[in-house]
Write a structure and sequence with these properties.
Protein name: YbdD/YjiX family protein
Pfam families: Sel_put (PF04328)
Number of strands: 0
Number of helices: 3
InterPro entries: Sel_put (IPR007423)
Radius of gyration: 16 Å
Oligomer: single chain
Organism: Rhodococcus kronopolitis
Structural class: mainly alpha
Shape: flat
């Protein structure tokens, strides 16, 4: 029973990683580690800035 549960957990981690669910946590950790004096934006501020940047610089995306 542990094998399928572990596989499901791994699949769930992969799906959430691809969808960007872990991006804010990684960004906040990066700021804390490499720029200790910089204030960390809230998650809402992070996503607003990220989407604004994507709209301003669309680059290559499928949709």
């Amino acid at each position: 029973m542990a094998g399928p549960r572990r596989a499901a957990r791994g699949l769930w981690w992969w799906v959430t990683s691809v969808m960007g669910d872990h991006d804010y946590a990684r960004y906040a950790e990066h700021l804390r580690r490499t720029h200790p004096g910089t204030p960390v934006p809230s998650e809402r501020e992070y996503w607003r800035a990220r989407y604004a940047d994507q709209d301003a610089h669309p680059g290559a995306r499928c949709c």
